[in-house]
Amino acid sequence: MNPATLRWYLLGYAVLVILLIAIDSRSGSQGVGVSLNWAGDDYSFSGGAPPWTLFFAAVNACLFAVLLWSRASGSSNPMPHLFRRFVAGLLDWFLSMMTVAPLLGLISILIEYRQTGVFDWVIERHEPHPLDALQAFGGVLILFVAMTFYMAIPLFQGKPSLGACIAGYRVAPDEGTQLTFWFACLRALLGSVALLGWPCWIMAYALKRDKEHGKFWLDLVFRTHAEYLG
Hints:
Blueprint: H1 3-25, E1 33-39, E2 42-48, H2 51-68, E3 74-78, H3 82-116, E4 122-125, H4 132-157, H5 162-167, E5 169-173, H6 181-196, H7 200-203, H8 217-222, E6 224-229
Antiparallel strand pairs: 1-2, 2-4, 3-6, 5-6
Helix pairs in contact: 2-3, 3-4, 4-6
């Protein structure tokens, strides 16, 4: 399937997921994934993977695979809109989080079930268990690595990410260049800083901006550019 056609289905899908999360957050239920808070005598551990989050995690993974195997091509027409790239980055951050966090929550649930013999889709307790710290800190590490790969793999293969597809563009190497996988991972990490680090995002409008070729400072460093999907 052509990503230019798939983007409209992805847009509707992203809106649906955001609405469901907004509704679920008002129900008072615990968050998805694993969380550990320990300050003095105040200890709390929570983990969760409601079935609907696991369903969307599986759908996200399938859509990610579809884009990787799609016939993605650029139009060679530079995409100059930096705010559009910002929105796409937020969508990618959100969708990657909703792909990995439920799986981490499911692992926590299964560990809890093995330890206590009680199965529940949401865990919340104030008594420490032996594997709590490993789950929490290991989960952060896994989430960090998985989200980096989520951004880097499409870039390495010249395909749009889910967020970029919704926004109608892809990031591609400049003519005559090619990104290695680990170079793509480094670009993904710096791109996250540019996306979430204040005031890096605002500075991107003024620092080494080249609208004519669809570039800002990160593209100049890695010799990439943004172009509309063909």
